[in-house]
Structure formats: C-alpha cells, structure tokens
Amino acid sequence: MNDRYFSGLTGEVVTSQGPEYQKDRQEWNRAIQKYPLIIVYCYNKLDVSNAVLWSEQHCVPLRIRSGGHHYEGYSTGNSVLIIDVSRMKAISIHENTVTVEGGVSNRELYEYVSSKGYSFPGGTCPTVGLSGYALGGGWGLSCRRFGLGCDSLVELELVDYKGKILTASSECNPDLFWACRGGGGGSFGVIVSMTFRLPPKISRVTFVEVYYQNTVEARRAQFLTTWQRWLAQADEKITLIASIYHSQEEGFAIYLRGIFYGASQEARVIMEPFTDLEENEASMEEMSFLEAVTIIGNSYPSSQMFKSTGRFVIRPFNESEVYRVTNLLEEVPQGSVYSALTLYALGGKVKEKSSRETAFFYRDAGYIIGIQSVWTNPKYENSNLDWVNRQFRYLKSVTEGSYVNFPYSGLRDYLDAYYGLNAGRLREIKDQYDPDNIFQFPQSIIPFYTGPHCH
C-alpha cells in the first residue's frame, strides 16, 4: 500500500503496517479471526463522511464499530474498511436531555449523567457502545421503569450512504427514526450523535442481589416457575436479571440481581417470593445509581471466549417445559468454565408501547432468555459452539424471535426472528435510505431492491 491509496481519508488511518493495527489484530485473532484492510479512527462527523465516501469510491466494503461488542463480530471483517467512532466522546446536557457522540460507552454516560443527579436506562456492560445498544432496542436494568434505551431517544444524526449528515426524529425523517429504534445497528448509516430524554433526578436506588448455592434440579425448576409468576405482577420500578448456571468453581447455582427505584424496605417486600425459597443469601442495599451500575459493570471480564444468544419468552413455560429448559444445563460442554441460562425481565414501561410504534417488535414478551457458554482454552471452541447450537434448537421451539443485540449467526430467518412483523417496513426504509446497500454485513437488513453496485 502507498500513501496515495489513502487520499481523501481524514481521521486517524491505521493500516496493516501500523503498530496499533497489529495490537488490535492480536486481540481480534483470539476470538473472531478477521483481518480488516483499514481502520479509520474518526474524531468528528467529517471524518465519518470522508470514510464512507472513500469506501464507496474505492469499492472497499465497510463496517461500523463503536464499542466493538458485537457477539458475532460483525463490526469487523476481512479486507474491509472499519469506521471506528470510539474517539467521538462528547457529552452534553441541555434542560432534560443528554446528547452523546457516537463513541460514548455506557460507563461514560453513566458517570456523566450521575454527576448531574440523573440515572439513565442504559445497558449493564460498561464498555458497550451506547449507539449500538440503543439501535438494537436497548435492554437494561432500568427498562421496566423507563422503557428500553431506544424509548428515550428523541433525535439522532447519522452519516448516510452519500456521506451526508441526516437528522432523524419524530418530525424529521420519521421513518428513519422509527427504524433506528430497534432496527439494529449498522444497516442505515453511521450514528454520529444521539439525544435522549433524561429521567427525573434521583439520589438513591436499591441494589438487589439474591444467590442460591449448590442447587438441585427441583430447585432450579422452582426458581424459574417463581420467576415467571413474580414477573407477571411485578412492580415496574424493579428490573431483574437472573442466571441459572453451572461453573467449574461453584457447580450449579443461581444468581439474581437488579435495580429497584425505591427504598430497600419496599424492595424486601417485593422480593419475598425469591427470598422465601430455601437456602438463599439476599442483600437489598440503598446506594447511588452510579454505585449500583458500577458494581454490575465490574462483574464483567475484560475479555472472554464465549457463545451466547437470546430469545423472547412470549408465554410462560408450562411445568414440563420448565424442567426441560432448566435441564439444558445438565450436559455441560467439554472445556466450559461457565454455562448458563440468563433471564432478562421485560414488561412494565417496555410493554406500554405497541409492537409497531418502534422497530422493536417483541413488546409483549415477558422476558428474554439467553443461553451461553464460556471457555478459556481455544481447543474447546467447537464443543462449546456445538453445545449452544443444540440447546438453542429446543429454546427456539418454545419461544419467539431473537434479540438483535444478542445476535446468533445460526438463524436462517434472521430478519423475521429479529424484527417480526416489522421486517417488511424495515426493508422498505432500507430501500429509501441505503438503496445501494452500502451498509451491509452478515445479518444486516436487506433492501427489497439493490441496484448494481461494486459492493
């Protein structure tokens, strides 16, 4: 490659000859084995626009990366140009809204808004990019109280396939705005800024934890039954996540945690169905919102080898299904250090919007159920992938749809699975805003008509 080859690009261009590329490549090699041609670290909207235009002019496929947390690695690829917006970090508050640039992470937003007295319905992992989180809908531990992340979105800016900056809101490009609230990241353009409505200021929340050690089959089934009954009538001020898991260190166990927007005394009453189960360790501690999300964020490893996906539970599992689901963990994959069924509570404010109001279709689901396995030795990758694939087949038979922020490469009908009856409208909007299908990647939204194009 020579310097002339990169003419027209701004921002910080990294090629396969640069030390930063080599460092990044070493990290990628451990997990997804992809070799991009160029990475453009963008610092402003112009950098993004120039990168899109350069990609188009030179027929180099592009990918978009913010936090780089895509489960299937679709934010990178072989011989592609990566538009990396992770350097775009500006955050500002105006009245009761917060505006963030495209590279802001959950942790960075939490720290900023908390310093002003606010909470925010963001995600649990601190380093996830906020733009990808919100575009996929945005599940988090405040969603039953304030809705999904995309429900607080009031305006966004993106760079389209022509390199132009478009504004989308309920008044301006409303169809694009609709699509970007649950239609997944990367299919319509590069997000360069987002403005969210802030919730009311709050000084304290209650951080909830319940742990069950050395669980047997009957206890795991009892917990899932209790979870379903509790969730059907639960106070919307509380959102929980629970893992029924097997680990090398603990064997079979259950861990539940969440955030309650209220006092600890009230939380104890709300959580009685769980604390009444035998042999549990429970804690209900009042603290600041930032302290709660920091505790949650600190539980995530800096990196790991894993396979994970998630499905929507539309109806409660019956007794036989409860046992069949929890027994999916009985066969632990070879080399797995942690395998789990994870439950993500929905309902509350999430359910108040209709399935057609935004692109996020599965508003009526009671919760998301995820299945995952983690391994540390690369030689066990195939056995763990095969295990997840086998267990997924049964989960698919008793659930509906898949959560696009927990993507699964094994889906043949991924458009219907991710978007339900909203898939057709998303394809129409794709035709309008990206007719040449510039923003494409595995499992991107496919336009109804794609004209002749070098990509």
Sum this structure up briefly.
The chain has 455 residues and is α+β, with helices and mostly antiparallel strands.
Give the arrangement of secondary structure elements:
Blueprint: E1 12-15, H1 19-29, E2 38-41, H2 45-57, E3 62-65, E4 81-84, E5 91-94, E6 97-101, H3 106-115, H4 130-135, H5 143-146, E7 153-159, E8 165-169, H6 174-179, E9 190-197, E10 205-212, H7 217-233, E11 238-247, E12 251-260, H8 264-270, H9 272-275, E13 280-287, H10 289-298, E14 305-313, H11 319-326, E15 336-345, H12 349-352, E16 367-375, H13 381-398, E17 400-402, H14 414-419, H15 423-433
Parallel strand pairs: 2-4, 3-4
Antiparallel strand pairs: 1-2, 5-6, 6-9, 7-8, 7-9, 10-12, 10-13, 11-12, 11-15, 14-16, 14-17, 15-16
How would you sum up the major sheet? Answer: 8 strands, antiparallel
Mean pLDDT equals 92
Which strand order do you get reading across the main beta sheet? 13-10-12-11-15-16-14-17
Distance between the termini: 21 Å
Total count of strands: 17
The number of distinct helices, counting runs of at least 4 residues, comes to: 15
Strand content: 15-25%
Please identify the structural class as seen in this structure: alpha+beta
Shape: globular
Rg over alpha carbons: 22 Å
* Helix content range: 25-40%
Low-confidence stretches: 1-7, 19-31
Q: Report the oligomer.
A: single chain
